[in-house]
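WARN retry 2 of 3 for item q-0093 after timeout on previous attempt; input resubmitted unchanged.
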Amino acid sequence: MCLVFVVDRRGPGNGRVLLGEKHRGIGARNVVGLGGHVEPEESAVDAAVREAHEEAGVVLDPTALAHAGSVRFRFPSRSSWNQDVEVFLTGATDDVLVPSDEITPAWYPVDYLPLASMWDDARYWLPTVLGGGRVDATITFAADARTVEATDPVLTPVPLARH
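OK item q-0093 returned
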C-alpha cells in the first residue's frame, strides 16, 4: 500500500494538503490521503503516482516524491484490513482536481487538518509528516476497528479539540 500527500506551501501558514473524502470501501466517508494498492509490477512510488492520478486527476513527478516513512496498520478484530503502507510527500500541483468514483479531492489547511473526519491514526503521525518529520510505526486499532488502541513506538496524538 502507499499514501501520497501533496503539499502546497505557497499559501498562508504552513500551506495546504491535498486530501479526499472517500466514497467506498474501507474508510468510506472519511477524509483520507491519496493512495492504494501497489500492483505486482510497480514500485510504491509508481503506485502513488498512479493512485493520485486515478483518484484526483493530478499528475505527479515520481522523482519529486520523498519517502516520509512506513506505517503498519493492524486490526486484530478484522485482520483482513491489516496494511503495510509506504508514505510519500511531494510539492504543489496546479492541476485541476477531478473527483473520481472513489474520492472527492480537496485542499485542506495543514494548520487545521480535518482530524475528526479522518481515521483516528492520522492525529498520531500525519502532523509530524506534514511538518517535515518521518514516521516508522505500527498502529493497532481497538476492537471497534475505528479507534487507536496502541502505537509502537508510542506516539502522542494531536488533540482533536485543537482542530
